[in-house]
Amino acid sequence: MAPSSSKKSKFATSWPATNPSSVAASCPSKTNEKLQRLVAPHVASFDFMIKEGLDLAVASIAPMTIDVGHSSKMNIWIESAQIGYPTSDATNGQARLLLPSECRQRGISYTAPLIVTLARSFVGGSTTEHIQRTVGHIPIMVRSQRCHLANMSPPELVKAREEANEMGGYFICNGNERCVRLLQMPRRHHIMAVRRGAFTKRGDLYSDIGVTMRCVRRDQSAVTLTMHYLHDGNATVRLGVRKQEFMVPAGLLLKALYPLTDREIYDRVVRGDVDNTYLAARMELILRESKRFSVYSRDEALAYLGKHLRLVLPYLSSDMTNVEVGNRFLDDYVFVHIPKGEKGRAQKVELVCLMLRKLYAFAKGDIREDNPDSLMNHELLLPGHVYLMLLKERLQDSLASIKMQIETAKSKPAVVDASYVKKVWERTQNVGHALTYFLNTGNLRTSSGLDLMQIAGYTIVAEKLNYYRYFSHFRSVHRGQFFTTMKTTAVRKLLPDSWGFMCPVHTPDGSPCGLLNHLAVECQLVTSPPYSPDTALDEELKLARFLANLGMIPATGYSDGSFVAPHHYLPVMLNGKLLGAAAPTVCLELESALRYTKASPEASLRRERGVVATLEVCLIMPVVGGPFPGLYLSADAARFTRPVLQRNTDWIEYIGPMEQVFMNIGVLPADIRPSTTHMEIKATNMLSLVASLTPFSEHNQSPRNMYQCQMAKQTMGTPAHSIPFRADNKMYRIQTPQAPIVQNERLREYNLDEYPLGTNAVVAVISYTGFDMEDAMILNKSSYERGFGHASVYKQIQVDIAPKENSTTKSYFGNVKPGSNDDEVFSAKLDRDGFPYVGQHVEYGDPIACHIDQTSGKETFVKHKETEPAVIDQINLVGNNPSMCTKASIKLRFVRNPIIGDKFSSRHGQKGVLSILWPQADMPFSESGMSPDIIINPHAFPSRMTIGMLVESMAAKAGALRGKYMDATPFQFSEEHRAIDVFGKYLKKAGYNYMGSEPLYSGLTGTVMHADIYMGVVYYQRLRHMVSDKSQVRATGPTNSLTRQPVKGRKKRGGIRFGEMERDALLAHGTSFLLHDRLMNCSDKHIATVCTKCGSLLSTWTQRASVSDAGQSDLAIALHKDRKQWMCATCRTGEACEAVAMPYVFRYLANELAAMNIKMTLALKAW
Q1: Using DSSP, how many helices (H) and how many strands (E) does the chain show?
Q2: Do 421 and 445 share a domain, yes or no?
């Protein structure tokens, strides 16, 4: 019977919230916006690609002119490209919706069709013909606008077999969730002064000084332009074209861009600063050098460029003139962020002049080098943007492939009709395969380089080890693969510039330290360019007029006249375009007006002035030896932003990392000074989400907080609620989780207790029994029996019986013998369908599946390969057609209750291993009869200074007594308002010691211990590092066929490497027999035959054996047979041959030396 409409309105059950960090029902009614904001950079950047980016990319792909023979030419171009929605393979003629949960369970990719419309017309013809085709199925980001889960409510997500708070932001490729990692890139549209030794390798006159600018089109494809300073005072511009570098003299570039006289060029750079002879002399040199090319007009300069670049620019038509090629070069490779056209060319000239001014100021020493490692000079490469860049290049390459195929065809058809073009088009590379390869491997296959610094390491698996690790993948930021191999530590240093944008705590220890960082909790990213493509120029003009009204002199392109401002005026830049210039005093007024406008709650005021809420306003005033002065405005995509509070208006203002360096922001009320203009909203905004969850973290030594960030992500917690519908290779799950009594503000905001990580444990700090030395911890055996730390590991086994490529034999799952009665089965341990019962225990070697060959009726068993027993948790038949499933997914559950050697940790980086399960009868107990769950050693505290753990112990004890959750948000206590006073009063009121200590009685003698023992409640985590996964032992086993030494690897039942340092340790102890046993007897002992006459190990051989001694070992022959069995090929006798025990690798060495024509002889002492 169908449920009534009243029941449909409610989902499952509802109850009041007893815990502030979880929701008030089994399923929340609406999505947690804060959780969704964690992955917003990923989802929103992909949505930008769908809504706007793909159309922009298609519009910027140049048409191709193809010579089709018979004296006719054809133009082809891509008219449009659309992305569909994911659908499954059509069954019964009907395609149905494909949901992410189905893709995970079937091990397929979550893809949608990419439909491209190709247009063609013949040169001289008037008609245009369109051809449409699906060029591949491209992966779709979960919860993007092309995903079926977009805009679903939590109850709808649960019905779609997803998490109630599914965030998305990842791709599903072959059933695996893959995430594109955020990478740090040089900041776009900002002129950076850099000093690099590699610049001097460009030529004899090249110095190590240059200025560089990364220019990005609206479709997010980029070109980097570098201006070099030469020792003779000249300047050249370096550009990259399809992974090749080209140098263009600055004077020639200025001539080609705009029709200007030499005097006009000189005035625009020098700007009346006649006292600056350094700049004036070098500008005269540039203008004189440009005469060497015999170029006097704009067309001559364009023709000169076109003539020399014709052979290297891609996708050119053979009938283009040199001037047209020069124009194409200027449009596609020089300041590509500026639109095409005469106004754009005028703006490009202004930009070249500004770069020259900065270059010569840097060379003279007036300004300092910009720090390339500072966050103020960085932005992020977002997943949607890199995906769009790759997609655009693949579409461009498919056009080029069509052209090449038609022009190089041996026999051209008489008529190049639509069907012929479509047939050629179908032979081009599948776009979907290229993008799937990129996501699966993280490797970039590109012909142009895409102006990126690495070709690998772009994607990672979004593991759901636990929920903290999962969402950390989406907030992690990597500096780049190139920097991992650098010997210097400069790139790893924590700079103050990154305050509030990058977390200073959340970075791993070891090789990725400082390179793999995490975004601060309130840091947001701008995911799309400002305004819309149609209104962007009008909005910029609005802003220019607003600033002009306040005293700015507008630049060429934003006014009717030409632009020459006095040299002491500061440039005003917007997104890499020169808006104008203004005096330093006027710039101060401009800055305050822009800050007021962008923070204003009135959207109409911002629209009227062309200001966006995330506009970055960076005013750098002139300082001797400081950075290049100017007012830099940025509203670009891929920037960092974060909210702060304006003190004079109490409005929220979003600021960027570049402007933050030049602002006065207070963190705590005590920081306020007369010059303070802004305040932090919360002191914890500088931390990442994982780092801000550590209770009382300001009381801990900093490295311990770093360790906790790593260990929180290694905890056996609650990875997901939809475990029955997930097919992860390995999942960890704690069976007895609890809500922490001591909670942080962030834990409540993000409802993270929906995915709890640990258990509240009564912890006593005492040196007891000696089993707690060196970070070991004693666990109460009764606590263990009550379920403390009990956990399970889920492993997925895939059984695929589909026929191989060259085979026609089919199999089916079953356990009943063909042709027999229904009661005759192959294995009594399996059900009739060929699978075990759900809940059945399986041991090593037990069958877990059986499939039968349809032709021969022969059965094949899939067996449990692990020595650890398991429980059959779930069995799924996987496929699109229920009647013909050739794939099964078997989920095994391994019981992993704590055993000696398993790793535990508190939330303060205090990790330790379980040393013993101590009977409760022998545990110390308090006056109230309470025994601790865990005993840890007092020596864990003095050197590590984890005072936060001591405070948590008091706070949780007070909370347990009061029946309330205690707040542990950092920075709420101070010397005047101490934590001990707050929680001590609660303890005293409940009748306990003010300091948290208690007298304990010995469990062995029953007498009181003559010391107060610190005892309270601490939230403990069980980590995934278990001795069951790491213990390795071997007597005999597989060996390497070449060296005959044991193979390595626990899975292969290999040995543990006994290296040189271990050998040295045994030598130092004089344990020669042990050394002999390890390095020879248990490794590769070998009985070799050595000729004592010539000392050869390789020339001896064994004569053909008789029937009586055939098959006996070398050792048996050496001990029992006379020496006539042996023969030395060199001495032609076996009398001098002797058996010697040695490691086989010694014989291998002799062979290797012989291959190098080096003879090794042995001298045996006894002979």
Answers
A1: 30, 47
A2: yes
